[in-house]
């Protein structure tokens, strides 16, 4: 065995779980992330507890991310993508490209003085988010005057640690690893694809992801149109799941919708919450009881609406087939939340080609039957939602399981 | 501390509330500057005596901030903290200090707004507003 | 040793404009036992770190206060710095003057910053070293339960080079997987899967198997458990470093759900599987078979998974009409939506009810009446066999084992408390894990994932070259301990036990590897005999007292 | 073990009125274990007294100490000998025996009890103690399956239940509590000694322990 390095592609919660397990098991890990920050979707979600936990698992994420980032056995490469892979299990050669790091992670102390002096609007140099990890500023080439041929040097001059260097080029490097764990995650279904639901056109139609981020930032729900607290909210389940082109259940939407429903009712007991569903997924530890509790305060209607129209006042008229009454009903809500599911990443195909692994029918990476970790290429393992929908605990478990396979390869070789 | 001060001592669990306070700072969400945060490994580490001592030394309010009920990494830490806060309230009432000046708050790591609201509420309470 | 505090203040590139740093420095210099104060602009950069090391050495500093940004990402950096300077990494105290002071307030917060530094310095005075040591651990693992999950766990552990003892109550390994007819679209039958696993376990030199045996007692802590095993009259003992529980589940047709007792027409899943395996032995081909789900068990995925697979097998082998009565189709596991669609395409009819179906007997057949919510109509079905829903329950002995081990169960009595920090496989006690049906989850792919993650957690716990632990970070002072058992009873991680010191007095002892550092014991001890270094009473109280002392 | 409870602060404050310098003394034995008078409780009571007195503008000066066993003269002298001189009064957080031991040693100082000594008992749940022994001085546990009717029967009956036992074996006086005689019956049944239920007990000699009690060990 040439070395004891493992490559983990993707710095979301699954990739982080894999990296942590391997690093704590004594191996060295390269964790590469396409974006400037790690944590993926899970890091942008919100806690859905009222005063009592609703088991959404979002709170387990930040400490894992921090642990991984400071772990001495984990080398984190952000802004990086895999270009080429050669070799075989035990000796993969992986070519990585890292976008130019105009701001050095080692030197940026996140003091924010660069943003203060940046003359563009919006700012070309900024912190990706308040909780960004690594906690470091980034420079957007598309906005920066420097990259438009101007001779602006304000941020560089203001930087107290000389962290900024416009001349940095993108970097290629070759990594030598024994196994590869793919943890590239998912994309959220684009609500706009179902035009009749009006997402993207009506301001008060949001997705589950929008809600997660709104609660994470603001801590409460506001109508995008006027900033007021919504009083009558509808959730529409299975948007982008369980249909002809996405023939699977996304596994998370029923749970987040019910958790949000309970949270909304807790914050505003006068609010009315309705959930339109096909089948409620109530399996899982303690969840059936949670559903019983939700039923007391939330209206559940079988059948999902097909059309939403905006009334003149900005309210939303939802047209749905009332199965119980056997007719088509219309009802008005001030906020409609589309419980969008998980879809495969559009760039999965590129990575599949580079690694030589297969894509399944639905576009997620494929595995052997009754095995959700191993791909058709020996030594390449899958972790998390790039293999299929999973909630946070299952993503973590899957990441750990992938780490176990990678570890097994090394143990066998010793 | 002077008795006229309006200082609040906040015992913050490092798994949740302490991170929340950092998040609030990072978001530049401003809150009253009379709060002094003491980091603890779990709200369950906070003892009645720590709370009493804070008042003895002149604090006007004490917040014990831990994880959401049911989400304590140590299972019972936050519920124990809640009981102790209740006990401390009773002991403080015996010495003539309004029970509302000590409070248990349950937070998740992302609840910056809630943290600020609690600090503001306690500040208003002790300033008699 | 005389305390010599060195305080390093960082103004974050002079960006924290609402703090008057020269003033802070000037005041801080007057603090008790402070021998050096440094004001710098970027402490966390490499060049500054080198400077800190040399100053610590030059000035003979033995307690370090860093006043700067939040400790979350930088604490370990500075910990390493002071270690490099020859100090124990616990001699570090941080004042968070950026995130929790400058950034959090608009007004001038020089005084607050000063107070925060004073709090950190006061705490620093009381810091004691915490040593790290490698701890001997037993690398053997105990697996309780010899069904699919137990066998797979043992095999996976062997793949990681760990030896196991596998204890099964029944006379043969196998458990309940054999009760499944099969997985649709997969050639290998469950029986074949089991027999190949059984063979692999028996041939594996790393796995020691005890059948017809049960666990009588478990003593000890992570890294060093002692297990007493009872096999008939024999009493055996084994030592291990970790335990996996894979004790499975049991199922029961609840009489209140069906009023009618299971008989020739109302059958269990197992009975159906027997019929499917030997269709030739049936007197005649059943014309209609019904399934009822979601009558009393809405938590488990087992009923829908087995029903879909079995319904498809019925279609394939018996060609009967198949009707499935259910409330909600639980399709939230891998491949189940596809299976459901396949079943519909093959003619399985799904009927959804809101109110429980009424079940009675008519002319030697079973009559099922329900209101179907999709059709909005009353439906009456006469079927030759009705496959009853079986409620999934924790196996016998779960309660006894969980109370003996001091580990929690969920509201339905299955292993593992409902706490997200334990998910997917951990218990509140280090070194004890749960996989498979005993956790209440019965989805095949999830179970496989869980087993791998449990085995990985064990590998991580027991296998690194050196298992490093912080020694006595939380410690009972034997001379103060009154053996009142309070800490033993309240420790959420079961990490405290009574031991005898000097063969005389029984006192509480905290096991370093099992301790998770919450400090609940230190707070509750009525004799104040427990010291939590870093969060000791005198340290917390020093911080409290430093607040607002006259500046 | 001796079980005690802390007195309400108001009562303690009244006892202490007029004194400015107080020594609060805990005991590391029984009262530590029943969370009433250990080192921790000493700290809590001291804090409370300081807060109460400063609230009234009349701050007390308080010393704290905890004795290994307050009922042992040597231990009390060793721990308190120096401190007592500095105070005007002593507040004992020991059981009644502890209070009296201190009072005997430091005769010139007033000694006040901060606890009510309640009974001899055992822990039932975390933070809950129940009475098990009435110190009658004439133990009959041998005949009653190890269950004491003197303290566990509300009426202290020695010859079977009173006749008012409620459904489910609960006590007539307090339906929350078990009838001691039902418990005794069940226990003896388990042991196959139900014949003992028929045994008649003479009225108990409650003067087996003459007050004040005194026990001398048979050998030195």
Report what the structure shows.
The complex is a heterotetramer of chains A (414), B (129), C (551) and D (220). With 414 residues, chain A is an alpha/beta fold. Chain A folds into 2 domains: 5-99 and 170-185 and 345-413, FAD/NAD(P)-binding domain (3-Layer(bba) Sandwich); 190-341, 3-Layer(bba) Sandwich (FAD/NAD(P)-binding domain), CATH 3.50.50.60. Chain A contains 9 helices and 20 strands. Chain A has a 5-stranded parallel beta sheet, with helices on one face. In chain A, strands 11-18-12-13-14 form a 5-stranded parallel beta sheet. Chain A has a 3-stranded antiparallel beta sheet with strand order 4-5-8. The longest helix of chain A is centred in the C-terminal third of the chain and has 22 residues, at 392-413. Chain A is globular and about 65 Å long. Chain B has a single domain, classed as Rossmann fold, CATH 3.40.50. The relative contact order of chain B is 0.23. In chain B, helix 1 packs across helix 4 (112-126) and helix 2 packs across helix 3. Chain B has 4 helices and 4 strands. In chain C, a hairpin with a 2-residue loop joins strand 9 (214-221) and strand 10 (224-231). In chain C, the strands form 9 sheets. Chain C has a 5-stranded parallel beta sheet with strand order 8-7-6-12-23, covered by helices on one side. Chain C is elongated and about 100 Å long. Helix content of chain C is 31%, strand content 25%. Chain C folds into 4 domains: 5-130, Rossmann fold, CATH 3.40.50; 141-249 and 394-462, 3-Layer(bba) Sandwich (FAD/NAD(P)-binding domain), CATH 3.50.50; 251-391, 3-Layer(bba) Sandwich (FAD/NAD(P)-binding domain), CATH 3.50.50.60; 472-532, Alpha-Beta Plaits. Chain D is α/β, with parallel strands linked by helices. Chain D folds into 2 domains: 2-119, 3-Layer(aba) Sandwich (Rossmann fold), CATH 3.40.50; 134-198, no CATH class. Chain D contains 7 helices and 7 strands. Chain D has helices spanning 9-16, 30-33, 39-55, 73-84, 96-105, 149-152, 180-191, and strands at residues 2-6, 21-27, 61-67, 89-92, 111-113, 115-125, 128-133. In chain D, the strands form 2 sheets. A 4-stranded parallel beta sheet of chain D has the order 3-2-4-5, with helices on both faces. Chain D has a 3-stranded antiparallel beta sheet with strand order 1-6-7. Chain D starts with a strand and ends in a 29-residue tail after the last helix. The model of chain D has no long low-confidence stretch (mean pLDDT 91). Chains A and C meet through helix 7 and helix 9 of A and helix 3, helix 11 and helix 13 of C.
